[in-house]
Amino acid sequence: MIFMELNENAKEQEFLRKKFRQFYETNEITYPSKVQNREFGIGEFGKKIVKRHMSFANSNFFNKFLKEDVPFYVSASASLYKRPDFRPMEKKEMFGSELIYEFDADDIKTDCRNGHDSWKCMQCNALGSGTLEKCPSCGSNSLSLDQWFCPECINETKKQVFALVNILKEDFGIKEGLYINFSGNAGFHVHVENQAVEKLSKEARIQLLDYLTLHEINLELLGFFLQKKTFVCPKDPCFGQIKRIKTALSDMLSKADIGELATYGLIPKSKLKSLLQNKNFVLESLSSGTLFSIDAGAEANKKFWLNILNYIASKIALDIDRQTSSDIYKLVRVPNTIHGGTGLIAKVIKFEDLSKFDALKDAVAFKEGRTKVYITKVPRFYLYGNYFGPFEKAEVELPDYAAIYLIAKGKAKLV
Ligand SMILES: [Zn+2]
Ligand SMILES: [Zn+2]
Fold it and tell me: What mean pLDDT is predicted for residues 187-212?
């Protein structure tokens, strides 16, 4: 079966490899740092990792390998080892590990996904648009998803990156060794490479993760609780998690959206009249350490504020995958290499350039040439400033970057 598939795509794979080789022949890859201490892994068409436990003596050997072997994916360990090619893992002798946080657009629910994603139920053959976890017809969770990404959902992941970088800088004073790269598909990776974090234990990494994701926060311990008949909170100035919660609460109260407050506070709108009429006073009280008492008894007031605070905590918690973030053995795409599932560059971005970074444009590697392809079925998609499609069972001549993108995604063949 696998052999058949490989054979079926032989021409396409050869085409992609030729293009990727051109890229590596003209672009020196200067990441990761400390090449000699990293474990590397490579992938082939449709498979991100087919081989790991590889190592290179230095960056020159690594670049030589990229030019000669041209892997479709290349990843390196977040951890540093004395003997990165030894196995099992314990024999590698780890002596440090950088922090890498991954944000992916497919973890974030955005409206645009109804426009570009689709699903098919493998049980009952029902199909529809968007991304679902369960089939609405038969309840099965074996769905085949066809996921695409657009500037809207990728920008949504940027917000997470901004929030994370601000916390790392403000709450932890991390300023050195922080850099960001596009994943090459639909998200961003934030790397922290400095001595302060390199030696953190696994437990410390999990605590850090808990802090960032507000995992199981105890509002009372943070200073939000009912004192006699008043719900109190820490006074300004605040720091860390308290500051994040209070800032978001202040934003929510400033908007004074009665529907939102009633929905998430689980209280009838009629009880929120004086809260809305006294907005300025409400905000001043928040700053000086009291949450305004709504038109209800102390117990209902307490429940209202706890509901609102818990809602806010869930809203501002960073969407970081616990599993991958605390896995010290993980391999992560080498920055500035090609993502074999899109043909885009996993491009390094300066933090100050992130807001204007247009991933599906600025990460395009193959800007010249045109190629004719046969497309099975694709929705309208955006690349390098242009929109293409939708196409279904069509033979089209496309700019190379778009043809490569579709071929790499397994959606088109050469003609
Ligand atoms: Zn179904
Ligand atoms: Zn989108």
Answer: 91
Identify the nearest ligand to the CA of 120 by its number.
Answer: 1
164 plus 300 within the same structural domain: no
Contact 343, 405 (CB under 8 A): yes
Structural tokens at position 316: 């501002």
Establish if 393 belongs to a structural domain. Answer: no
Rounded distance from Cα 113 to ligand 2 centre (Å) = 5
CA-to-CA distance for 244 and 217, rounded, in angstroms? Answer: 13
Which residues make beta-bridge pairs with 44?
A: 47
Four-CA torsion 178, 182, 183, 185, nearest 10 degrees: 170
Number of domains in the chain: 3
| pLDDT at residue 3 in the model | 46
For residue 120, report the distance from its CA to the centre of ligand 1, in Å. 8
The residue among 72, 112, 79 whose CA lies nearest residue 93 is 79
Give residue 409 CA to ligand 2 midpoint distance, Å: 16
Statement to judge: residues 162 and 271 lie in one domain: no
State percent of the chain over pLDDT 90: 86
> Helices in 131-191 by DSSP H: which ranges?
151-170
Q: Evaluate whether 77 touches 330 at the Cβ level (below 8 Å).
A: yes
Ligand nearest to the CA of 125: 1
- Same domain (yes/no): 122, 193: no
> What ipTM goes with this model?
0.96
Q: Based on the fold, state whether residues 204 and 295 are members of the same structural domain.
A: no
| Ligand 2 centroid – CA 131 distance (Å) | 11
Q: Are 333 and 246 in contact (CB under 8 A)?
A: no
Residue 136 structural domain: 113-146
Ligand at minimal distance from the CA of 153 is 2
Q: Which ligand sits nearest to residue 130's alpha carbon?
A: 2
Number of H helices and E strands in the chain, helices first, is: 16, 23
Distance CA 29, CA 351 (A): 20
Identify whether residues 13 and 60 lie together within a single domain. Answer: yes
Whether residue 80 sits in one domain with residue 17: yes
Q: pLDDT, tens digit, for every residue of 36-54? A: 999 999 999 989 999 999 9
| Residues β-bridged to residue 146 | 118
Q: What angle do CA 64, 90, 168 make, to 5 degrees?
A: 75
Ligand 2 centroid–CA 179 distance in Å is 25
User: Measured in angstroms, how far is the CA atom of residue 141 from the centroid of ligand 1?
Assistant: 8
